[in-house]
Automatic annotation (TrEMBL):
Protein name: Mannosylglycerate hydrolase MGH1-like glycoside hydrolase domain-containing protein
Organism of origin: Cafeteria roenbergensis (Marine flagellate)
Biased composition (Polar residues): 344-356
Regions of compositional bias (Low complexity) in chain numbering: 249-281, 311-328, 1237-1257
GO molecular function, one term: Glc3Man9GlcNAc2 oligosaccharide glucosidase activity
Gly residues composition bias: residue spans: 329-340
A Pfam family: MGH1-like_GH
Domain Mannosylglycerate hydrolase MGH1-like glycoside hydrolase: 749-975
BP terms from Gene Ontology: oligosaccharide metabolic process
PANTHER family in the cross-refs: GLYCOSYL HYDROLASE FAMILY 63 C-TERMINAL DOMAIN-CONTAINING PROTEIN, MANNOSYL-OLIGOSACCHARIDE GLUCOSIDASE
InterPro entries: 6-hairpin_glycosidase_sf, 6hp_glycosidase-like_sf, Glycoside_hydrolase_63, MGH1-like_GH
Coiled coil stretches, renumbered: none
Taxonomic superkingdom: Eukaryota
Length: 1318
C-alpha cells in the first residue's frame, strides 16, 4: 500500500489527519488505533461461545449467564474500549438502586424469544467519533425504575409474527410517559486520548427529571467504571495471569466513615478498617487508583475520581501534593498541537454553574477475578470445577445486595485480581448532572520521563530469573546488587535477603544492545531483556515468557494490524533516596545507541557476576507451561509493586490536564469533520452524516475465533460431543481470527458478515482509507479465505454464499483514496485482485457447476425474497428435483465480472501482464450477459428466477415474484473509454476480434457512442449513438436533449429537459465519492468516445426502470422497495410436487421465519441495494447522457428526467427518512419539499410521520427519538426501513451498511453545490 498519503482535502489537514498519517507510516509511538471502541455490545448467544451438543447458541449461553460466566473468545460491555487484541478492556457498569443486577451490558431478546428474532431492548446512540478514536461519545438512556427484564420477555412471547415487537417503553411502568416525563438517566460517555497509549474517560449522568421537582427529584446513581482482563488462562493453554490491584494509602488510614445508610466497604475481615483510596481535601474518599500488569502491554495505571472538588486547571490531590511535572495538556502529548487559550474548558466551567451531583458514599475499590461462577451457572454439582471464590459476578452482589455475606466475594483492594472497578455513588438533584473521570495509562512499552517504565521492566525480568534460580535450587545470594539501590523500595527489597526479589539495581542496560534488541525505532526485535549485559539465549525465551517482545503481529496472530513495541531511551534516569528525579538521561547515551557504540556504551557499568549466574539458567524451549507460571507471577508482582511505589511518590497526576485534553480532542474532532464535510450541507444533514460515520467507528469490534480449537475443545474441559463436527463450520478448520473487524451491528450481529463489510468500507474509505484497505484484504488472507476461494460469510455458517460484492468494494476504495490523495495505490489493488481471482473461480466452479453461465447461489443475502428457501432445495420435500437458475445470482456474477474487468484494465495500464486477464473477463462478461437473456420474461418484461426439473426436457418456468432479484441485473454494466483502448492496443485488438466474430452474443450487450463504426476498434458496433437517440434510447451530447420518442429533427424545446449541463466529470462507479469522484474522462461529453458493456439492453433498461419508478410497484416515498407493492393485492403462491409456499408484500417486519425472521426482503427499503442501484443509474447515465430520459415517477405529467437525476431523487428519498417531517430538497434550488404522497389506496404504515415534526425513520416504532427532548438530535441506523412510512426495522442503533447514507449526503451536497453530476 502507498504509505504516508492523505485521503482528505489537502488544503485542510487537521490534527486527526496527521495522526492517521503517522499511524499509517508506522511512526514509533503513534499507534493511534491500538486502543479503540473494540468491545462488542453482546458476546453471549453467539455461535463461537456455543459449546452445546445441539448447536443451540442462544440456549447454550443466555443473557442470564453473561454476568457470571467467563467468555471463551471475547468480552462485551457498555461503551467499552480495549486494545486491538483485547488483552484488557474498560467499560461502564451502572446501577439505578432498583435493578436486581448491575447494568454491565445492554439487554435484549434471544432469537427464539423475540417475535421477530433477536432484538436489543435498550436505547442508546453512538453520537461522535474520530477514526483514531481520539474522541468518542455515546449516549445511553437508563430508566430510573426497575428495568423490565422479565416483562419484555413475556410481552414478546405473547405476540405473533404479525404484531410489532414490544419495545422498552411498552414494558415500563407508565409507558412512554416514563421517558417523556424525564424518569431516566441520560448517561453520556466520552473518551479522549492524551497519547496513543493513554486514554481518558468521562461519564456524565444527568437526572432528567424537571428541575421544578426540587428535592423530591433527587436520585442516586451508582457508576462503576470497570477494567478487566480477557480470560486467557482458564482453557488449558497458558496459565499465566495478568493482575490488577488497588493503590492504597496506609492500611489503617480511614478518616471518613460511611454514613449509616450506606453499605460499608467490602472485602475486609470483620472489624478491620478498609484501606482508604486517595483522599480529597475535605478528607472524603473521592478517588481510586489501580496498577496492573499484563504481559503484552506491560505496566498499566488506572485512576477514577469524582471531579467536584477539582477547580479547572488545578492539580490533583495526590499524596505528598506532587503535581505532574510534564503533561500532555491540550497538545495531546505526541501530537504537538497548541495549548488551548485560557486553560480550562468551556464545557467544564459551564457545568459548574449548574447544580451538580455529590458523592453519596466514599469511592470504593473493588477487585475480583474474571472467572466463571460455576455454582451459579451450572448448579451445586459443578462446585468442584470452581477455581476461585472470587468470580466475575462478585460486584453484582456487593453493590446490589449490600449485605454482610457479600464481603468475601470481592478481594481486598491491595490483593491482585483480574477484574476491578471503582464504585462511585452520586446523589444528583433533578435537572443536575453527576460526573466521573477515569484515566488509563499504558506504561510498559516506553521509558517515561522519570524512568519508571524501564525500571519496571528490569525489575520484572530480574524477579523472573530469580524465581527460576530458586526453582532449580540455586543460591541466589550471589546476585545481591554490588551498589546501593536507587530508591527506598529497592533498598527494602535488597535487605530482605536472597529469598526475595532482586530489583533493578543489579541489571544495567547497554545502550547499543538495547537498540539492537528493540530494532529500528524501537519497533521490533528480540526484546528488552535480551539487551541485558551477559544475557543472550535465555533472555530471548524470557522475553516471550514475560510478553516483552510485543503483541502478536501479522504473521503470528493472523492480523494485519501492525503492532508496536514502543520507543524507549537507552539511558536510565536516576532518583535520589527520596525518589526525586536527580539525573536526566544523557544525550550521549542515545547518540551512542544510534551509532552502536560511543559514550553511552562506555558509560554503562557492568555487574557481570550477578547476571552471569542468571544467564546460566536458560529456560528450555520444552519447559512445561506450569513451570513458567511462577517466574511470570514473580515478575508481575515486582512490576505491580514498582508501579504502586511510584504512584505513592506522586509520579502520576492524572487530573491536572484532564479537562484540557478532553476539550482539545473535542475541538479537533470538530475540525476533522469540518474539513471532511463540504459546504452546502444543511445542519440537520450534517449532524446525520457525522453520526453515521461515527457509528462505523463505534461499530468496530475485536473478533476472536479459532474453528479448530472450537471443534476439538479446550484441554481443561471435557472432549466435545461428536455432534459438534456436524453443527456448523466443520470444513473451516483453517480459520483463526484475532482481529478488529467492522461489524454489521455490535449487538444483533456481533460478528463479521463479509458482504455487509464491503458496504461499510465505502464510507470508511473517506474516514480512514488505509484501514478500509486492510479490512478488505484481511478477509482474503489465507487464514480467512477457504482454500477453495470462498470468502467466509458469517459466523452462523461461513460457507453460505453472500452476493460477491467484495471486488466492487476493493475497486471503490481504490477510486476514493486515489481521488483524495492524488496517488493510485496500485499495490493494494494488485494484492486484492490476485485473491479475488480465486474467489471468482470458486463461484464459477461452485455455483455454475453445469457450465451454462447461469448461476444459482441460494439465498444470496436476500433472506426471504423468494417464497421458497433457495438454499435448501435438496432437503425440502417436493423440491429436491428442481434446479434453480437465479436472476440475481447470474446478475451478481456478471457484476462481479464487470468489476474484475475494470480492475484488470486499471492494472494493465501499469503492468502489461494484466491485459490477457482483462480479455478473459471481457469475454466472460459477454457470455454471462448473453446467457442471462434466458431469464427475461417477455410477458411481464422483468427478470425472474427460473426453475426446471432435473433430467426433464419440459421447459423451465419462471417464479413470478417482482423483487430486487429482477432489479439487480441493472448493476452489471461498465464503460470503457477510447483513451483506455489506445493505451492498451493488445486489449483493443482482442476486443475488436471478439466483437467481429461473436457479434450475435454482443448484439444486445455492447454499445458505442461514436456511431456505427468505432474509429478505435475498427468494427461495427450494434446501434450507433444517433440511432439510439432517434429511438428514444441512446446518448445525446446536446444539453437540449429531445423528449423521449421524438425524432431528433422535430423535437421541440421542453422545459426542464437537460436542465443540468451535459459536460460533467464522472468516474465509473462513482456513487457518492468523497469529496469527489475523479475520472480519467474528465469533461467528456456523455457517450462520446465511450463504449458501454451492459447485461441489460437499453430497451429492457427502460422497461425495468419504468416499473421501478412506479409508486404502485417499487418506488416508495423513501426509496426503492425490495418487493413490488403489486404483491399486496396479488400474493404469489408457488406449487410443485405437493409443496406450496406463498409470498405477499409486507412493508415492515417479516411474518416468515426464514433465516431467523428478523430480516425482511418482502417490501422494506434496504439502503445497500438502493446504493448499488444509484451507482448503476450513474454508470448508465455516463454513457447515455441527457438523451435517455424517463418519467419520474412513472406516469408523471412532469418532463422526464435523465438517469442521473433518477439516482439523485432516490438518494434524497433515502436521506429524507432521517429528516424532520421527511423533508425533501429540490435538485436545483435545494428548497425543502414534502415527501411523495402514499400511493392511492395504500394502507397507512407503521410510523407515519406527523406533519413537520417527527422523523419517518422513527415514527411509531421508536417515537421516543422525537418525543424525548434529549434524543431529538440523535439517530439510530436501522437494518431496513418500512416500505410505506420509512420507519426503521430490524437491527437498530448502528447497522453498518446504513451508514452509506453519509455517502449519499455528501454527493447530493457536492452535486448541488457545483452543478456537476458526472
Amino acid at each position: 500500500m502507498a504509505r504516508g498519503s492523505s485521503y482528505y482535502n489537502h488544503t485542510k489537514v487537521t490534527e486527526e489527519h496527521r495522526r492517521l498519517r503517522d499511524a499509517e507510516a508506522r511512526v514509533t509511538g503513534a499507534d493511534w488505533k491500538a486502543i479503540g471502541p473494540y468491545v462488542v455490545d453482546r458476546e453471549w448467544g453467539v455461535p463461537r461461545e456455543d459449546y452445546s451438543p445441539d448447536g443451540n447458541a442462544w440456549a447454550a449461553f443466555p443473557h442470564s449467564h453473561a454476568r457470571s460466566r467467563a467468555y471463551r473468545w471475547g468480552e462485551d460491555g457498555i461503551a467499552g474500549v480495549c486494545n486491538r487484541f483485547q488483552n484488557w478492556a474498560m467499560a461502564l457498569a451502572l446501577w439505578n438502586g432498583k435493578d436486581p443486577i448491575l447494568k454491565e451490558r445492554f439487554f435484549g431478546l434471544a432469537g427464539p424469544e423475540g417475535n421477530h428474532g433477536e432484538d436489543a431492548k435498550e436505547i442508546w446512540a453512538n453520537e461522535d467519533a474520530t477514526p483514531c478514536a481520539t474522541w468518542l461519545r455515546m449516549r445511553y438512556v437508563y430508566p430510573m425504575q426497575r428495568f423490565p427484564y422479565e416483562k419484555l420477555v413475556e410481552q414478546s412471547a405473547a405476540r405473533t409474527r404479525e404484531e410489532p415487537e414490544p419495545e422498552l417503553p411498552d414494558a415500563l411502568e407508565g409507558g412512554m410517559a416514563a421517558l417523556t416525563g424525564g424518569e431516566f438517566w441520560d448517561v453520556t460517555v466520552e473518551y479522549g486520548k492524551a497519547s496513543a497509549d493513554e486514554v481518558l474517560m468521562r461519564v456524565r449522568a444527568r437526572n432528567c427529571r424537571p428541575a421544578s421537582a426540587g428535592d423530591a427529584g433527587t436520585e442516586t446513581i451508582h457508576i462503576l467504571p470497570t477494567l478487566w482482563f480477557r480470560n486467557t488462562w482458564s482453557w488449558g493453554y497458558d496459565q499465566r495471569r495478568p493482575a490488577i490491584r488497588g493503590c492504597t494509602s496506609a492500611p489503617e488510614a480511614s478518616s471518613a466513615p460511611a454514613a449509616e445508610s450506606d453499605c460499608r466497604p467490602h472485602g475486609y475481615a470483620a472489624g478491620a478498617p478498609p484501606a482508604a483510596p486517595w483522599p480529597r481535601a475535605d478528607g472524603a474518599a473521592s478517588e481510586a487508583r489501580f496498577v496492573a500488569w499484563e504481559r503484552h502491554n506491560g505496566g498499566m495505571r488506572w485512576a477514577v475520581t469524582v471531579p467536584e472538588h477539582l477547580a479547572p486547571g488545578s492539580s490533583s490531590h495526590s499524596p505528598g501534593g506532587a503535581a505532574e511535572a510534564g503533561t500532555a495538556g491540550a497538545s495531546g502529548g505526541a501530537t504537538g498541537g497548541p495549548v488551548l487559550p485560557g486553560g480550562s474548558t468551556t464545557d467544564a466551567s459551564t457545568a459548574r454553574q449548574s447544580p451538580r451531583g455529590t458523592l453519596a458514599r466514599p469511592v470504593e475499590l473493588l477487585v475480583t477475578d474474571n472467572e466463571t461462577n460455576f455454582v451459579r451457572v451450572f448448579g451445586e454439582a459443578a462446585r468442584e470445577a470452581q477455581d476461585s471464590a472470587h468470580t466475575k459476578d462478585a460486584f453484582h452482589d456487593v453493590v446490589t445486595d449490600c449485605k454482610e455475606p457479600c464481603r468475601g466475594q470481592v478481594k481486598p483492594p491491595h490483593e491482585a485480581g483480574t477484574k476491578a472497578a471503582a464504585w462511585v455513588a452520586l446523589s444528583v438533584p433533578a435537572g443536575a448532572c453527576g460526573e466521573v473521570w477515569c484515566r488509563l495509562k499504558i506504561e510498559g512499552r516506553r521509558l517515561d520521563e522519570d524512568g519508571v517504565g524501564e525500571r519496571t521492566r528490569r525489575a520484572a525480568a530480574y524477579a523472573a530469573r530469580a524465581a527460576v534460580a530458586r526453582a532449580k535450587g540455586c543460591d541466589t545470594s550471589a546476585t545481591a546488587p554490588p551498589v546501593a539501590p536507587a530508591s527506598p523500595v529497592h533498598a527494602a527489597a535488597a535487605a530482605e535477603g536472597a529469598s526475595q526479589l532482586r530489583l533493578s539495581g543489579s541489571m544495567v542496560l547497554q545502550p547499543e544492545r538495547f537498540e539492537a534488541a528493540a530494532g529500528p525505532g524501537g519497533g521490533g526485535g528480540v526484546g528488552v531483556t535480551a539487551a541485558l549485559e551477559g544475557v543472550d539465549g535465555g533472555g530471548q525465551q524470557l522475553d516471550s515468557l514475560l510478553g516483552l517482545t510485543g503483541t502478536p503481529s501479522e504473521g503470528s496472530a493472523g492480523d494485519e494490524d501492525f503492532c508496536f513495541n514502543g520507543s524507549a531511551s537507552s539511558a536510565l534516569a536516576e532518583r535520589d533516596s527520596a525518589g526525586r528525579l536527580c539525573k536526566a538521561p544523557e544525550a550521549g547515551a542515545e547518540a551512542g545507541a544510534e551509532a552502536g557504540a560511543g559514550a553511552g556504551a562506555e558509560a554503562a557499568p557492568a555487574f557481570k557476576p550477578a547476571v552471569d549466574m542468571l544467564a546460566s539458567l536458560p529456560i528450555p524451549e520444552a519447559t512445561p507451561m506450569s513451570e513458567l507460571v511462577a517466574p511470570h507471577d514473580a515478575a508481575r508482582d515486582a512490576a505491580l509493586e514498582l508501579l504502586a511505589d511510584s504512584d505513592r511518590r506522586g509520579v502520576w497526576a492524572p487530573w491536572q490536564d484532564f479537562a484540557q485534553v478532553m476539550e482539545a480532542r473535542r475541538r479537533e474532532a470538530d475540525a476533522f469533520y469540518a474539513a471532511l464535510q463540504p459546504p452546502g450541507i444543511a445542519d440537520e444533514d450534517r449532524r446525520l452524516q457525522r453520526q453515521a460515520l461515527a457509528g462505523l467507528i463505534w461499530g468496530k469490534g475485536f473478533y476472536h475465533f479459532g474453528v479448530q480449537m472450537w471443534l476439538d475443545g479446550d484441554p481443561r474441559f471435557p472432549p466435545p460431543p461428536d455432534s459438534r463436527l456436524g453443527i456448523r463450520n466443520g470444513n473451516w478448520r483453517h480459520l483463526y481470527v484475532a482481529s478488529v473487524v467492522s461489524l454489521p451491528d455490535s449487538w444483533e450481529y456481533p460478528f463479521f458478515a463479509v458482504w455487509d463489510l464491503a458496504f461499510h468500507m465505502i464510507p470508511m474509505a473517506v474516514l480512514d482509507g488505509e484501514w478500509a484497505k486492510r479490512q478488505l484484504l484481511l478477509f482474503m488472507r489465507e487464514w480467512m479465505m477457504h482454500p477453495s476461494g470462498c470468502l467466509p460469510a458469517y459466523e452462523w455458517s461461513y460457507g453460505d454464499l453472500n452476493p460477491p460484492v467484495h471486488a466492487w468494494a476493493c475497486l471503490r476504495v481504490f477510486q476514493i483514496t486515489r481521488q483524495a490523495s492524488g496517488q493510485p495505490d496500485v499495490t493494494f489493488l494488485e494484492r486484492a485482485f490476485h485473491k479475488l481471482l480465486l474467489n471468482f473461480q470458486f463461484w464459477t466452479n461452485k455455483v455454475d457447476a453445469g457450465g451454462k453461465n447461469l448461476f444459482g447461489g441460494g439465498f444470496l443475502g436476500l433472506d426471504n425474497a423468494s417464497p421458497i428457501n433457495r438454499s435448501e432445495l435438496e432437503t425440502t420435500p417436493g423440491l429436491s428435483d428442481l434446479e434453480l437458475h437465479q436472476a440475481d445470482g447470474t446478475a451478481w456474477m456478471a457484476f462481479f465480472c464487470s468489476i474484475m474487468l475494470k480492475i484488470a484494465l486499471e492494472l494493465a495500464e501499469h503492468r502489461d501482464a494484466y491485459v490477457d486477464i482483462a480479455n478473459k473477463f471481457l469475454e466472460h462478461f459477454i457470455l454471462i450477459s448473453h446467457a442471462c437473456d434466458a431469464l427475461w420474461d417477455e410477458e411481464d418484461e422483468f427478470y425472474y428466477d427460473w426453475a426446471h426439473v432435473k433430467g426433464d426436457r419440459t421447459p423451465a418456468f419462471p417464479i413470478r415474484v417482482r423483487s430486487y432479484v429482477g432489479l439487480i441485473p441493472l448493476f452489471a454494466s461498465l464503460t470503457i473509454s477510447d483513451e483506455t483502448l489506445r493505451k492498451l492496443p493488445a486489449f483493443q485488438a482482442r476486443m475488436a476480434w471478439f466483437l467481429r466474430h461473436r457479434s450475435s452474443w454482443c448484439a444486445s450487450h455492447v454499445y458505442s457512442g461514436r456511431g456505427a463504426r468505432s474509429p478505435v476498434l475498427g468494427v461495427s458496433i450494434t446501434e450507433s449513438a444517433a440511432d439510439l437517440v432517434r429511438e428514444g434510447i441512446g446518448p445525446q451530447g446536446s444539453a437540449d436533449a429531445p423528449a423521449v420518442g421524438m425524432p431528433v429533427d422535430s423535437a421541440p424545446a421542453t422545459a426542464g429537459a437537460g436542465r443540468l449541463r451535459s459536460k460533467r466529470s464522472w468516474a465509473p462507479g462513482s456513487c457518492a465519492s468523497l469529496p469527489g469522484s475523479g475520472s480519467s474522462e474528465q469533461g467528456a461529453t456523455p457517450g462520446e468516445g465511450v463504449h458501454l458493456l451492459t447485461l441489460v439492453s437499453p430497451e429492457r433498461i427502460r422497461k425495468i426502470v419504468s416499473r421501478m419508478l412506479d409508486p404502485e410497484e417499487f418506488l416508495a416515498p423513501h426509496g426503492i422497495r425490495s418487493l413490488s407493492r403489486y404483491h399486496l393485492e396479488h400474493p404469489y403462491t408457488f406449487r410443485h410436487n405437493g409443496h406450496e409456499a406463498g409470498l405477499r408484500y409486507e412493508p415492515g417486519d417479516s411474518s416468515s421465519p426464514l433465516y431467523g425472521g428478523n430480516s425482511n426482503w418482502r417490501g422494506p427499503i434496504w439502503i445497500p441495494i438502493n446504493h448499488l442501484l444509484i451507482e448503476a443509474l450513474q454508470r448508465l447515465d455516463h454513457f447515455f447522457g441527457d438523451g435517455f430520459t424517463v418519467p419520474l415517477p412513472t406516469g408523471s405529467a412532469e418532463p422526464p428526467v435523465p438517469l442521473w437525476d433518477v439516482g439523485s431523487d432516490i438518494s434524497d428519498r433515502l436521506v429524507s427518512m432521517f429528516r424532520q417531517g421527511g423533508a425533501r430538497e429540490d435538485t436545483a434550488s435545494r428548497a425543502p419539499r414534502r415527501p411523495a404522497s402514499r400511493p392511492a389506496g395504500a394502507a397507512a404504515g407503521a410510523g407515519e410521520p406527523a406533519a413537520g415534526t417527527t422523523r419517518p425513520a422513527y415514527g411509531s416504532v421508536s417515537p421516543w427519538m422525537d418525543q424525548v427532548p434529549a434524543l431529538r438530535e440523535l439517530h439510530q441506523f436501522y437494518e431496513f426501513f418500512h416500505g410505506e412510512s420509512g420507519a426503521g426495522h430490524g437491527a437498530a442503533h448502528q447497522t453498518g451498511w446504513t451508514a452509506g447514507i453519509a455517502k449519499l449526503i455528501q454527493q447530493l451536497a457536492t452535486t448541488r453545490r457545483t452543478g456537476l453530476r458526472r
